[in-house]
Amino acid sequence: MDVTWASEWIEDYANAWRSGDDEVLGELFTEDAVYRSSPFRPPTVGREAIREYWRNSTSTQERLELELGEPVVHGNRVVVEWWALMRDEGQDVTLPGCLLLRFASGGPCEELRGYWNQQQGRHDPPDGWGR
Description:
Elements: H1 3-19, H2 22-26, E1 29-36, E2 44-45, H3 47-58, E3 61-68, E4 72-74, E5 77-88, E6 91-103, E7 109-116, E8 119-120
Parallel strand pairs: 1-7
Antiparallel strand pairs: 1-2, 3-5, 4-5, 5-6, 6-7, 6-8
């Protein structure tokens, strides 16, 4: 795995989020993938469960503006920051976060761990973010 390949996977993930397309998103993961949207929530396990999680999670999001940082690749692991501005449940919110990804041989993601924070209103990323 290299930075170019990781960047393409991350862009596919971002495009699925932007479009709310849970079918495309599901194809980025192995059949038995583990998706941890937060360290304090139970994991979502399996491609179909991940699709359902995304249908529910993105159903209240509107006008998503999403930026991605430069990925860091180490073997089959990738880390990348993201910064999202959106309306969620009728409110402007800023949602910055980080994804820790582990990939199976051949490319699909077999584990995603997400860490994020939500702030009311729209806030730009700080200088140097995403590098």
